[in-house]
Specification:
heterodimer, A: 407 residues, alpha/beta, Rossmann fold, 2 domains, 5-stranded parallel β-sheet, 8% strand, B: 330 residues, 7-stranded mixed β-sheet, 5-stranded mixed β-sheet, 12 helices
Chain lengths: 407, 330
């Protein structure tokens, strides 16, 4: 069998490419991928048309009563999230942020699922859930502290039932499962949602969270945004089966939803949350979407994926399709879009100003909150650090001529 | 009316069991989690009878997945519970090492103090019981290096009882190393008199010629060493550290300023072990008091050996006495 080079694999990712017919392994995998695609739940086509068929009916009923106002709300959420995200990317380019992980292209998956939640539900995000944070009412500027390097998580998780961003891939799925076990013990009817990605699906912690949640029937929704790329690795490097099918092996349902269809994401997440609330345990939702931008501002996707692929996904843009639907349904007028444009710019400005005004933390913050009940060594090192800092203050106050020694 | 029992002679394992029972009774948020902790009562029976009395929702048999145990305990703590999780053996903790180091230890700081994780991770540790591979390790230094964690290890039944009470009450994550070779050693436990703060060392034998510092399973050995040395006319002080992080350096300093010689004993490998940290800090604090370099006795830089060799690997009476002689010879 021929050994394929990485370069030889690349064209296979391109939309419409017919490459990849040599070698048994390649053929098998391509087949697996293609057979998976028709199983997507979609309620809104890329052209903005409502999909109505028997297969989707189970989910469609969860958005049957959606009002024009709610649709405009979803549109507004997605537009503002994208504007915030673009501003953060710009702020990184201007040197105001050290790094940014853009959610560009994943707005529907995040707003659809985020708006399905109740206030008393609890969210465990990765580091890219800016749209979900928006839905939870977390001030967008709070998300930027860790990317600017002034803190490692700038919000109170219990303030909005939105946990801190988790950077180490997949770890938060276990926290979500444990939290959900607690919800069940408390007899509450709220639910928990754990976000993760296609890359994280390979982590042992995700597998263990599936096991634990299934065994304890925990009210948790696993919301996997399959954005096709884990930095440079395509989903084929993580799995041989469509990700949603993994749930079956754990004994709970999995469903693949069009992650660029905000209505379908809203409906499917509502369905999954209802299952959790009704004591039916965990559900895996695979939102099939696309990371339009780089993994982070440090990444260069031109090294590993073709422009044609991105272009193919641009045609399925989540915001564009809802706009087409709103316009075709006469749910909006020019005034709506003009107002939203102004609101977007105001948000961008507010975020820009807030980031630029964000002060560096006090140097003694190093020693803050290491322990809840204190620790002798931290106290000792803080005192040493203070004495060391004070030695400089003494010199500048008394002047170098005085020759006052440091510590 | 039955008279209240204020004290009992208990094996160390049973003392922990009583302590867990008391915590479960006192606070409905306390949970026990781990592999085989339910009907079986754990492989060392430390949780014996607890599931029967408190139910499956509070004494939870978990899937065999250590990362999952600690990761879900973190989630339960975020929900307001106080989980006490059991890692079945020292050598099995490493699948959970990421959750402990990356998540459990840091979340309080990451949340700027808004989140507290009162999780106790119980780990039966150390050798001397003739076990197979991965059942005799002493990984405490691997945790002590991590800020955000507190590391304790009782040496006797009374401490085991009270330190567990204090660990469960702590709002910080505590790694509770249980000296498995001492599980069956009996001691008097007074249920009313709290022996002292969790992180304070205790002088278990006063002496003037040299200080032996140990914690957990090695405290008893050091007491035996001191008794043997006394027969040779050497008067050794023995300090039970009880807590590895934070460590009571003031107590070690006070002892060394008196005896001027220090030997540290632990089962863990000497290289980068707690003894290295003690030697460095005591050298700094007691430079002008020391009559000899701080010596260490512990495991070697080799995998924990097969059971038939563990007596050679572990610090024993003669090996510690040899270090004592070398320190006194300076």
């Amino acid at each position: 069998m021929t050994v394929e080079s990485t370069a030889a694999r690349k064209p296979r990712r391109s939309a419409g490419s017919k490459a990849g017919t040599t070698g048994t392994e390649r053929t098998t995998r391509t087949t697996a991928r293609k057979s998976a695609e028709p199983e997507l739940v979609q309620l809104l086509t890329p052209e903005g048309k409502r999909v109505k068929n028997a297969k989707n009916a189970e989910y469609a009923k969860y958005v049957a009563g959606v009002t024009p106002e709610e649709l405009r709300g979803l549109y507004r959420d997605m537009v503002l999230t994208r504007r915030f995200d673009a501003e953060a990317t710009a702020l990184q380019r201007q040197g105001e942020l050290g790094l940014w992980a853009s959610l560009l292209g994943q707005e529907a998956a995040q707003i659809g699922s985020g708006r399905a939640l109740r206030d008393d539900d609890y969210v465990f995000p990765t580091y890219r859930e800016h749209g979900v944070a928006w839905c939870r009412g977390v001030d967008p500027t709070n998300l930027l502290g860790m990317f600017r390097g002034v803190n490692n998580g700038g919000w109170d998780p219990n303030g909005n039932n939105f946990h801190l961003y988790t950077i180490v891939i997949g770890s938060q799925t276990l926290h979500a499962t444990g939290y959900a076990m607690g919800v069940a013990k408390d007899g509450a009817d709220s639910a928990v949602i754990a976000y993760f990605g296609d890359g994280a699906s390979s982590q042992g912690d995700v597998a263990e969270s599936f096991t634990f949640s299934a065994v304890y029937n925990a009210p948790v929704v696993f919301f996997c945004q399959n954005n096709q790329w884990a930095i440079s690795e395509p989903t084929e490097k993580q799995t041989r089966v469509p990700l949603y099918q993994r749930a079956q092996g754990y004994g709970f349902p999995g469903v693949r939803v069009d992650g660029n269809d905000v209505l379908a994401c809203l409906a499917v997440t509502r369905w999954a949350l209802d299952r959790a609330r009704d004591g039916e345990g965990p559900t895996l939702v695979e939102a099939y979407t696309y990371r339009m931008g780089a993994h982070t501002t440090s990444d260069d996707p031109t090294k590993y994926r073709a422009d044609e692929e991105r272009e193919a996904w641009e045609a399925k843009d989540p915001i564009l399709r809802l706009r087409r639907h709103l316009e075709a349904s006469n749910h909006t007028d020019e005034g709506f879009f003009a107002e939203l444009e102004a609101e977007s710019e105001a948000l961008g400005r507010r975020v820009r100003e807030a980031v630029r005004a964000m002060p560096d933390p006090d140097r003694f913050a190093i020693f803050e909150n290491v322990y809840a009940d204190g620790h002798a060594l931290v106290d000792e090192e803080r005192a040493q650090f203070a004495a060391y800092q004070a030695s400089f203050a003494t010199e500048s106050e008394s002047g170098f001529a005085a020759g006052s020694g440091g510590n | 009316m039955a008279e209240t029992v204020t004290s009992k002679n208990l094996a160390l394992a049973k003392a922990i069991n009583e302590s867990l029972r008391r915590a479960l009774e006192a606070d409905p948020k306390v949970l026990i989690m781990g592999e085989d902790v339910g009907k079986l009562g754990g492989v060392f029976r430390v949780t014996d009878g607890l599931q029967k009395d408190f139910g499956e929702s509070r004494v939870i048999d978990t899937p065999l997945a250590e990362s999952g145990i600690v990761g879900t305990a973190i989630g339960l703590a975020l929900r307001g519970y106080r989980p006490v999780v059991e890692i079945q053996f020292d050598g099995f903790v490493f699948p959970a090492y990421d959750q402990i180091v990356t998540q459990l230890a840091k979340m309080h700081a990451r949340s700027l103090g808004k989140v507290k994780l009162p999780v106790v991770v119980r780990i039966p540790y150390g050798g001397g019981i003739g076990a197979v591979e991965h059942h005799s390790e002493s990984p405490e230094a691997l945790f002590a290096h991590v800020s955000g964690l507190k590391i304790v290890s009782p040496s006797n039944a009374s401490d085991a009882y009270w330190m567990m009470q204090q660990a469960i009450q702590s709002d910080d994550p505590v790694i509770f190393f249980e000296p498995k070779r001492r599980y069956w050693d009996k001691g008097e436990v007074n249920f009313e008199a709290i022996p002292g703060p969790l992180h304070k060392a205790r002088v278990v034998r006063e002496g003037t010629d040299l200080t032996l510092v140990a914690y957990g399973p090695m405290v008893k050995l050091c007491q035996e060493v001191a008794a043997a040395a006394a027969e040779e006319g050497k008067n050794l002080e023995v300090l039970d550290l009880r807590s590895v992080s934070p460590m009571d350096f003031d107590a070690i300093q006070a002892s060394v300023e008196k005896t001027r010689r220090l030997v540290v004993v632990h089962e863990a490998p000497v290289f980068f072990g707690s003894g290295a940290e003690i030697a460095a800090r005591i050298t700094e604090r007691c430079f002008y008091h020391l009559e000899a370099p701080v010596l260490r006795v512990g495991g070697y830089h080799a995998p924990y050996p097969p059971a038939r060799l563990e007596e050679e690997y572990l610090p024993g009476l003669d090996r510690v006495l040899d270090a004592v002689d070398r320190a006194l010879a300076y």
